[in-house]
Amino acid sequence: MLILGIETSCDETAAALVEDGRLLRSNVVASQVEMHARYGGVVPEVASRQHLLQIVPVVEQALAQGGVSWEQVDAVAVTYGPGLAGALMVGVNMAKAIAFARRLPLYGINHLEGHVYAVWLEGHQPDLSPGFPLVCLVASGGHTDLLLMEGHGRHRLLGMTRDDAAGESFDKTARVLGLGYPGGPAIQRASQGVKLEELHEKLPRAWLPGSLDFSFSGLKTAALHRARALGITETAASDTARQGEGSPSGPPAADLKDRDVTALATAFQESVVDVLVAKTLEAAAQTGARGVILGGGVTANARLRERLRAEAGETPVFIPSPGLCVDNAAMIAACAYYHALRRPPDGYDLDVVPSLKLGSL
After folding, report:
1. Residues 102, 90: Cα–Cα separation, whole Å
2. What are phi and psi of 88, to 5 degrees?
3. What dihedral do alpha carbons 302, 303, 304, 305 form, nearest 10°?
4. Which of 100, 215, 249, 279 is packed most tightly, with the most Cβ within 10 A?
5. At a CB cut-off of 8 Å and minimum separation 6, what does 91 contact?
6. Measured distance CA(176)–CA(132) in Å, rounded
7. What is the DSSP string of 30-42?
8. CA-to-CA dists, residue 170 to 51, 340, 356, angstroms
9. Residues pairing with 12 in the sheet
10. What is the pLDDT of residues 172-181, one digit of tens each?
């Protein structure tokens, strides 16, 4: 079954072709990072307009890259939430138009569930080995959720952020430190080569005892106050953004002369990683999960991947390659295959749900 996936929940216009939920035939992502970097974050109206410009050529490129004609496509899948309302509408309307014109079944997919299925695209089959249940950490700019995957389409919410998501905190802290946007890669670059035993900065961790929930708002505020105490100003951060240094290929760690910035960035990263790793492994222990799956842009962080694999013991850990951690349409198509096996397609009344949740309490 060959499925065309479409993803436009935030600032990536993406289309992909996936066969039988696992075989990646094409994966096209048109990123808007450089466009939004000047603002220090995603501007919803700008993102929506850019999706309108890119959606048709991106879909055409996905078919060309896969060497596929329309007659070979068996279904269309699209993210219908959560995400930015205007951005979601572009993808959903494109998918409905294709499904109507080509008489193809249409599947609306939860963006968060899509992140879970990215690991199936890399040769893993966690549903077969080690089998369910599986603990899933989905960490991105807008979400930090812990889920128990008890089967395909069966997710139980174990914990979520009570305030800021991990990715949002990375972005805002990086802006305070003048490291640019997006914040996750910028802070990781600044932290490279730092020896933790020599680190003179220490930031708090919100453990929330007795809960698998997360909280990063206090950490973000603590980093802001510490930055101001060290004379690191937000004005400098704004200057950096205006000069265009906030792109993904921004200043390497070796060029960051301010050791206070490097130390604070490292301390912030360690605080986030400590909590994410501890809560995820605690969830696995409490539920008797047979394995752990990671997904979402934050899980591309090298320190998080290293720590979780090192501390998981004999519990298998499945993490997509960094390119599949970030938003993409391949994960949406992969997820849709398992939807198609167990439920009828959606109708043309499919609508966007910007605040869509995943998992029952």
Report:
1. 18
2. -60, -40
3. 50
4. 279
5. 6, 7, 8, 9, 51, 55, 78, 79
6. 42
7. EE-HHHHHTTTS-
8. 25, 36, 23
9. 31
10. 999 999 999 9
> Hey, what domains does the chain have and what are their CATH numbers?
2-116+327-340 (3.30.420.40), 128-315 (3.30.420.40)
Burial of residue 88 (number of CB atoms within 10 Å: 0-12, 13-18, 19+): buried
pTM across the whole model: 0.92
In contact, 352 and 80? CB cutoff 8 Å: yes
Looking at this protein, which amino acid is placed at residue 220?
K
DSSP for 199-233, written as a single string: ----------TT---B--HHHHHHHHHHHHHTT--
Give rounded-to-5 percent helix, strand, coil for the chain. 50, 20, 35
* Residue 150 phi, psi dihedral angles, 5° rounding: -95, -5
Single-letter amino acid code for the residue at 176:
V
- Strand 154-160 and strand 23-31: the pairing is unpaired
In angstroms, the CA 329 to CA 24 distance is 11
Q: How many angstroms from the chain centroid is the CA of residue 258?
A: 30
* Burial category of 278 from C-beta neighbours within 10 Å (exposed 0-12, middle 13-18, buried 19 and up): middle
Strand, coil or helix: 274: helix
Which DSSP letter does residue 162 get? Answer: S
d(CA 216, CA 166): 6
**pLDDT (tens digit per residue) in 315-327:** 999 999 999 999 9
- Token pair for residue 291? 């394995």
Answer yes or no: is pLDDT of 269 > 70. Answer: yes
Confidence grade of residue 279 (pLDDT, cut at 50, 70, 90): very high
**For residue 171, how many C-alpha atoms fall within 13 Å in the half-sphere facing its CB?**
20
CB 135 within 8 A of CB 157: no
